[in-house]
Prior knowledge:
By secondary structure, the protein is of the alpha/beta class. Helices cover 41% and strands 23% of the residues. Strands 2-1-3-4-5 form a five-stranded parallel beta sheet, with helices on both faces. It is globular, with a radius of gyration of 15 Å. It starts with a strand and ends with a helix. The model has no long low-confidence stretch (mean pLDDT 97).
Amino acid sequence: MVRIAVVAGSTRPGRRGRDVADWVLRRAGEHGGAEFGMLDVADFDLPLLDEPVPPSRGKYQNDPTKQWAAAVREFDGYIFVTAEYNHSVPAALKNALDYLYAEWNNKAAAFVSYGSAGGVRAVENLRLIAGELQMADVRAQVALTFATDFREYTTFTPSDGAEQSLQRLFGQIISWATALQTLRA
């Protein structure tokens, strides 16, 4: 059975991303078809990229990097939960992606985003990053807006449309993660 991580990408105090990531993980468990886990970037305390050797060489020297690499390596696919900051990806998520290379290769990626415009611009940036890291991104995505999916713009309350989009996303990420296993065998 494939293993898929829900990646909480914001580390900001008062972030809404962990609530969203927890929702994704709960619904994933109900959906089944894969083993799901959580990778919260905030749990790894990654400093601004400080490895002296490029990640493509895989010669990690610092303990936080080694721990992050070991955690990421365990999964066949990733559902990235991202906020949109200034039309792009939160710096902590970009930094976490930049730390590694081979651990991401030939794995599936899906995106759940949130923000005033649903976080779609952050996802467009993430799709480019995923391509460079040799991840295959699925088309289905969930775009949560503060106006429709957050009561009073603060409390996460997903709409029926978000719930339906999430189910489509699960189907695609599980299928792609399963298919890509043959490339890593």
